[in-house]
Structure formats: C-alpha cells, structure tokens
Specification:
This protein is α/β, with parallel strands linked by helices and 275 residues long. Helix content is 45%, strand content 17%. Strand 3 (83-84) and strand 4 (90-92) form a beta hairpin. The longest helix is centred in the C-terminal third of the chain and has 29 residues, at 246-274.
C-alpha cells in the first residue's frame, strides 16, 4: 500500500457541506480503487448518522473510547469499534461521549497529539484517512489538524461563511507554527452552489481574489441539489442515491482533483529526497 494521506475536512462554520463532502470524497476514493477510513471527530455524530448508524447511544466503542485510553496510557486495539459500510469505506464513529474529550484533553499530557497517536496506528491499512471535524476550533479540531497531512475547507457559496475563513486560517497557521509544521491547505471547495445566481459567482470570485494566491480554490464546484441533501438521511453516498445527478458528477470530478494533487505532491517529495 502506498503512503497513507490524512486529510482533515474542516470549517468552524456549520452548514458548509463538510460531512457530505467527507462521505462523497471517501466513497469517490474507494470507487477509484483506494482503501479509505473515515473518522467522525464531531460529538454530534453527523458523519456516523449519515452513513446509516442512527442509534448513536448504542455504539459500544467510538473514537472517544480510544482517545480516553490513549490519555490514560492504556493499550488500544485501533480496529475495535470500526464500522464497515456497504459502499466500501470503514468508519470510526462518534457520539456525544466525544464532547467530554474537549475537557479531558485540556489537562492531558501531549494533549494536541492524542488523535494523532490513534491515527498513526491505522495508517498502514489505508491509502486515505479523512477526518470530519466539528464546526468549532476547539481541542478536537486542533487534534485533527495535528494528525493531518493537509486540510480541505468546504465553503458554502454565499458571502457570510467567507468571514469565518480568516479565523480558520489563523488557526491553521498557529498549528503549522507550533504543532504540525508539515500541515498544508490542499484547497477550498465551493459547495451548495447555484452558479446561476450572482451571489454564488461573487463568492467564487471573492474566494479566488482573497485566497487564490495563498492556496488552491478547487476547479470543481459542488452544486446545490435537494437530492444531495436527502442523502444524509438515507445512509448512502450520492453515488448510490442518485448516481446520474450533477452532484454525483461534481464529487467524482473533485475526487479526481484530490488524487491528482496527491500524486503531484508525492512526486515533488520524492524528487526533493532524490536530489
């Protein structure tokens, strides 16, 4: 198996299509022959629910179980509690127990690296690990950024969420300086877009003008569609739910962009080592 890439899907603003992007990028990567693990790092458990596990309180082992053991310096079996989805992705689920982690982590030794310790145990089994972050910039999100090689930022195509980008980028910069110098921003993905409206086009232009010189704005734009919103209650990806839709085509294109970028980065890394 090639070197595993760990990607945090993050935006402290809710409603940006973050969880939908995690699911459809994950299944898209599986469809391209990759082995993929999704990690639900949000105590709301939206990722877990959207993949069909709705009885969150009945899950015997979740991400919180493993992180608690790591904090207490107890041995873990990282695959314990792993769920296997029929579309080929694996999932480490979350529920409300994870909210207690924010408090536990404050006093924990090496508190920023607890999730990284867990992820490191699993990297040998996967090509990609995607972490669905909670919509805040607390200790759980810091843990996700510390564990990740890169971050993808979904942004909803109307103007207000752009204001939250500044705060997120400050946090990413702080993590790069103090915790994870290798962390990079893979790009910003415009989601829930109706490109026929002036507002969505203005958002795309604003993104490119304000951030385009600093990092990539993905060429693919994910359109708004009612069917896509319905997938979160269906337990399926958009590929299973409505495979011929514009959203399914867009997520397929986005997946290919992510793979191409990963290959470019790997070639750059290999050529810099060989020099």
């Amino acid at each position: 198996m090639s070197k595993c890439k760990v990607i945090a899907i993050a935006n402290q603003k809710g409603g940006t299509g973050k969880t939908t992007t995690t699911v459809n990028l994950g299944v898209g990567l599986v469809n391209e022959g990759k082995k993929v693990l999704l990690i639900d790092a949000d105590p709301q458990g939206d990722l877990t629910v959207s993949l069909g596990w709705t009885e969150l309180d009945n899950l015997p082992i979740t991400l919180a179980t493993h992180m608690e053991k790591i904090i207490r310096d107890e041995p873990i079996i990282p695959e314990d509690g792993m769920l296997h989805h029929k579309e080929g992705i694996d999932l480490m689920p979350a529920n409300i127990e994870l909210s207690g982690m924010e408090i536990s982590l404050v006093n924990a030794k090496s508190r920023e690296f607890t999730l990284k310790s867990y992820v490191s145990e699993l990297k040998k089994n996967y090509d990609y690990i995607l972490i669905d972050c909670m919509p805040s910039l607390g200790m759980l999100t810091i843990n996700a950024l510390a564990a990740a090689d890169s971050v993808i930022v979904p942004v909803q195509a109307h103007y207000l969420p752009l204001k939250g980008m500044t705060q997120l980028m400050k946090t990413v910069g702080k993590v790069q300086r103090q915790i994870n110098p290798a962390l990079k921003v893979d790009g910003v993905l415009l989601t829930l877009a109706n490109m026929r409206t002036n507002l969505a086009r203005a958002t795309e232009n604003s993104l490119k003008q304000n951030y385009g010189r600093v990092f990539k704005v993905y060429q693919t734009v994910i359109p708004f569609a009612v069917k896509a919103a319905e997938t979160s209650t269906s337990g399926k990806s958009i590929y299973s739910y409505d495979k011929n839709s514009s959203v399914a085509r867009a997520y397929k294109d986005f997946t290919k962009e992510v793979i191409r970028d990963g290959e470019k980065d790997r070639h750059k890394h290999e050529s810099s080592i060989s020099r």
